[in-house]
Amino acid sequence: MPLASGDDAPTVTAPNQDGEDVTLAFAEPTVVYFYPRDDTPGCTIEANQFQRERETYQDAGVAVYGVSTDGVDSHQSFCASEGLEFDLLADPDAEIAEAFDVEVQNNKTARTTFLLADGEVKAVYEAVDPDGHAREVLLAALEDGLVTLPE
């Protein structure tokens, strides 16, 4: 069972698609979405929709990170082919998935999204439908008053 709302957020470090280590401590509002595999239909839909909403997330002060068990090279190729401008974190040993208690089967993470801020989990989305999910998380963060958009 994944971390729940109100749980402390783990501090994690992993390489992004450029091989640069990224450490997340979740003081600022952050979305971390786990997805099964690069370049698959559902994962591509989800990534493209987070990319489409990227500017609005940025305006609201929310960082977005995708995580899968794919490696740096796979993430780099996926970002290039889909024009993704946010970090995908490589988790080949499922250490980040383990830190968030996200299920891993056949080296693929369960589609799970976390909204984090102030060092804790604010919301968890399990068994996510990739289509429309990026907008759903953004609207929930705005409705819950976790973030606001500039006037």
Q: How are the SSEs ordered, and which strands pair?
A:
Blueprint: E1 12-15, E2 21-24, E3 30-34, H1 41-52, H2 54-59, E4 63-68, H3 72-82, E5 87-90, H4 95-99, E6 104-105, E7 108-109, E8 112-117, E9 120-126, H5 133-143
Describe the protein in words.
The protein has helices at 41-52, 54-59, 72-82, 95-99, 133-143, and strands at 12-15, 21-24, 30-34, 63-68, 87-90, 104-105, 108-109, 112-117, 120-126. It is an alpha/beta fold and 151 residues long. It has a domain at 1-10 and 63-128: 3-Layer(aba) Sandwich (Glutaredoxin). The protein has a 5-stranded mixed beta sheet. A two-stranded antiparallel ribbon has the order 1-2. Helix 3 links the parallel strand 4 (63-68) and strand 5. The longest helix is centred in the first third of the chain and has 12 residues, at 41-52. The radius of gyration is 14 Å and the shape is globular. The model has no long low-confidence stretch (mean pLDDT 94).
Mean pLDDT metric: 94
Q: Quick one: how many beta strands?
A: 9
Report the β-strand fraction as a percent range.
25-35%
How much helical structure, as a percent, in the residues? 25-40%
**Individual helix count:** 5
Query: Can you summarize the main beta sheet?
Result: 5 strands, mixed
Q: What is the highest CATH level, the class of one domain?
A: Alpha Beta
Report the order of strands and helices.
EEEHHEHEHEEEEH
- Overall shape: it is globular
At the fourth CATH level, what is the homologous superfamily of one domain? Answer: Glutaredoxin
CATH topology-level name of one domain: Glutaredoxin
Enumerate the strands of the largest sheet in spatial order, edge to edge or round the barrel: 5-4-3-8-9
GO molecular function: thioredoxin peroxidase activity
Catalytic activity: a hydroperoxide + [thioredoxin]-dithiol = an alcohol + [thioredoxin]-disulfide + H2O
InterPro entries: AhpC/TSA (IPR000866), Peroxiredoxin_BCP/PrxQ (IPR050924), Thioredoxin-like_sf (IPR036249), Thioredoxin_domain (IPR013766)
EC number: 1.11.1.24
